[in-house]
Amino acid sequence: MDVKRDILWRVYLSYLAVVALGIFILVKAFIIQQVEGKHWHSMSDSLHQKIEETEAERGTIYSEDGQMLSTSVPQFDIYIDFEAEGLREKNGKRFKSNIDSLSYNLSNLFQDQTEGEYKKILEQGYKNKDRYYLLRKNISYREYQQLKTFPLVRLGKNKSGFIAMDKSKRLNPYNMLAFRTIGLARDSFKVGLELTYDSLLKGKSGSRLVRYIAGGVSVPVEEGFETEAENGKDIVTTIDVFVQEITENALMKMLIQNEAEHGCALVMETKTGKIKAIANLGKRNDGTYFEDYNYAINPSEPGSTFKLATMMSLLEDKKVSLNNTVNLEGGTWQINGSTVFDSEKHGRYDVTVKQAFELSSNVGMAKLAWNNYGNNPNQFIRHLHHMRLDTLTGIDLKGERNAVIYKPGTKYWSSTTLPWMAFGYNIAITPLQTITLYNAVANNGKMMRPYLVSSIKEEDELIKEIAPKVIDEKICSDATLQQLKECLEGVCTEGTAKEIFKNTSYKVAGKTGTALVANDNKGYADQIFQSSFAGYFPADDPQYTILVVIVNKPHVVNHFGATVAGPVFKEIADRLYLNYVHQNNYANPSSNKNDSSYFNYVGLKNDAKYLMKTMQLHYSDSTSLTNDWININSNKGAITLINRKISSGTMPLLKGMGLKDAVYMCENIGLKLIVKGKGKVEDQSIVAGTPIAKGQIINILLN
User: Fold this and answer.
1) In Å, what is the CA distance from 43 to each residue of 36, 37, 49, 674, 675?
2) Which of 37, 320, 438, 650 has the highest CB neighbour count under 10 A?
């Protein structure tokens, strides 16, 4: 009996526990639904809806002549929500009545599938009730504008289910042109101006409310829950596209010819410090060249172009005059157990200080420095500091690296440091520092801060103009400046560069440089030479300062500054003089003579003959029947028609053509033109005879 009672008691107790649990669940459910319902509904919404950041449109980087160097192009991903209420109401009447015409239009626009295939895709998506079906990725703004006019789509997002997710793609329209300086705009890796001016270019992000559906995909909620992004500012650089192209082309040609490892070339406007061109080309594994690294802002041993700093120190301290003599000892000199060699054998002994500079004698510069600063090397180092060679130039470009200048008393200073520094070894400065120093000499001692951005704009409205900045009013005395200019001009008339400029119609002042450089941890055994040339022109009224630095392949025969870097300098200078400097020297237009004695035009043969006949001009025709393009020459009244050969695979010579003919010819061979000026073609950025590719951009200058 006691056992039975004990069992019943346990059963009743279990029953009561189950009843109590049931009552608790019912009460809790009531509380959740009726009392806490709003709270949990809001919590559910917060888990499925979120404020999402929207990117602002990044600003554009322009050249000084108004060309786009880097810009953002809008792109769109198109999705369809087949569960949209407006699309499914009335048993899908709206969808079914528009599907045929919509499929037809999609097929015509994208031309990747037939009308029937698009219809099948849409019907399948509708049947499966896909919430976020990807129809098309990365369509252009033009395609998106057309899409918005299509049947069903034009009814809006709620009725059509069509959702456009906008984004932007960063493009460099000129591809490699100044690519490393302009920079990349990737989230994880920005360089160049894209990095330096990132805070201005990127603008201010906006926000929008999105709803998350299956698969974690976000769908924008209806309009009214978003804040507009503030687009980035535009920046206008100092770079001139035409100058940049001729600089890059001249550098590229020599790199290919000499199979060099890498090189850089800079063009600075003398009076302002504006960088008009900056080319950095490195050799890739496949043998081609690309803007892979900004060599212009990275230090290396400068070689003989540094002798300008040595001469400035000596002259400023009145340690020497240009007429003093120095014994070059035939080109070799023993000093503290080491030997200084001149890079070229000359067999000279007693020469003037000016001649030692013109000959680019390492022995001469080392002797002068040792004899005059050996007992007080700090005096020499102080001069380098005054020239700001141990200081960053302050260019508006992140990544500029500090120079390496050893000082007496440090562990790197030895008994040979000073004499080797005198001719550009045991020291490392950037090409940008070198050109800044040469530019200061050209600018009568006034050192300008090199800079790359001249203004900031917002929707074509000028916000800020960046003016040239003087960083040192006078780097040395006028007397020293005059002697330095004499030395630099002497290099180009009597010294190592005389062969380059002997037939030049303008005066050049400059300095060649040839330096043996170390190959990382292999030292100097690979015989890698750095060829350089720094200078300015016209020497009597400097307009541009140019520096060319090329690092050659190991054991190359042609490695001298005069024969490797010098020709690049001259090609750039020739074209700048013709197109910018010489044109500005026409003081009085009324003094210009008529070109009745000689002229040269280019055009189509039939047009020329029609013109001659109409104007009743007599001419001799030496053209072939199959040739369409001709030269029309006149000398002392005799007019001659001559064949002009055009090849589709190489760049034709455009000089002398009118704009209409130049456009016609270039477009026929697949080139894209950018034109400056009026009149006939005076110059072109791609040299005649150079191989070309379809879609390549060419700048032409009319005069």
Assistant:
1) 11, 10, 10, 59, 61
2) 438
Provide the β-strand partners of residue 166: 76
Q: Encode 577-597: b = buried (16+ Cβ within 10 Å), e = exposed.
A: bbbbbeeeeeeeeeeeeeeee
Q: Which residue do the tokens 């050049």 mark?
A: 508
Classify burial at 37, counting beta carbons within 10 Å of its beta carbon; exposed 0-12, middle 13-18, buried 19 or more. exposed
Q: Model confidence over 319-343: pLDDT tens digits?
A: 999 999 999 998 899 998 888 888 8
**Residues with Cβ within 8 Å of residue 236, at least 6 apart in sequence:** 62, 63, 64, 453, 454, 455, 456, 457
Which DSSP symbol is given to 324? -
Residue entry with tokens 């500054």: 561
**Nearest C-alpha neighbor of 335 from the set 427, 417, 426, 428:** 417
Strand partners, 327: 350
Cα(169)–Cα(140) distance, integer angstroms? 10
User: How do residues 431-440 score in pLDDT, each as one tens digit?
Assistant: 999 999 999 9
Short-list 310, 430, 432, 453, CA closest to 371: 310
Specify the pairing of strand 697-702 against strand 672-676. Answer: parallel
Scored b (16 or more CB within 10 A) or e, 304-334 reads: bbbbbbbbbbbbbeebbebeeebebbebebe
Read off the tokens for 292: 């892979």
Closest CA to 217 of 121, 132, 153, 110: 132
Give pLDDT tens digits for 66-101. Answer: 888 888 777 888 888 888 888 888 888 888 889 899
Return the residue matching tokens 């102080």.
382
> What interhelical angle do 362-373 and 377-386 show, nearest 10?
110
Q: How far is CA 364 from CA 283, 317, 325, 329, 346, in A?
A: 35, 17, 10, 9, 13
Hey, what domains does the chain have and what are their CATH numbers?
Answer: 52-236 (3.90.1310.10), 242-568+577-585 (3.40.710.10), 590-702 (3.30.10.20)
Give the residue carrying structure tokens 């650089």: 237
Count CB neighbours of 425 within 10 A.
Answer: 22
DSSP result, 455-500: EEEETTEEEEE----EEES-SS-HHHHHHHHHHHHHHHHTSTTHHH
- Its pTM stands at 0.74
* Three-state secondary structure call for residue 108: helix
